[in-house]
Hints:
Blueprint lengths: L5 H18 L4 E4 L6 H9 L4 E6 L1 H14 L8 E2 L13 E7 L7 H11 L3 E11 L1 E2 L7 H13 L6 E2 H11 L1 E9 L3 E8 L2
Parallel strand pairs: 1-2, 1-4, 2-3, 4-5, 6-7
Antiparallel strand pairs: 5-9, 8-9
Amino acid sequence: MENFAPSCERNKHVILERSHHFFENANKVLEIGSYSGQHAFHFVEQLPHLIWQATDCEEHVKKLQLNIDNSGSSNFARAFTLDVSNSLNWPKCQYDIIYSANTLHIMSWRHVEQFFEASVGCIEVSGYLIIYGPFKYRGEYTSQSNAEFESWLKDRDSQSGIRDFEAVNELAISAGLKLIEDIPMPANNRLLIWQKNP
């Protein structure tokens, strides 16, 4: 598999376990930042009714599509390049779920804002936005390892960083989303689930 990520293998099972009831009642899923597609392949294997649209930035999308081709699954639309800052890149159709794992902390804050501004238009009424990753609460890290991770992120890209839950939730509220789940996860991560207001 191209771009195989050990972290995806470790967390794909528990993410689906905690969000299974949302996905089992969905049909169409848009994933932002699919990378290798490991989460997508696992979710579709367990829930074969799902139609999954994988996306990533330009540098990863060719390898992502190769993995999709090699999977032999008919559950996937062709992967495409999605730049969250370009409104023209976002699909013109709507999905039951938009899913994204470990992406907000590698974006700039402006890109996080643009992510929420654009994503809500791609969610069906009463559909869901599901985000997995590390967050700070009231400006505080949830673990020393997350503080060290943020230092590594900043050294790599000064515009990246672990986001404050409260600031992200304000973006979601402003976009017309309501937080319905904030689930503690292994390795000091969270699973945040918002629903689009009817």
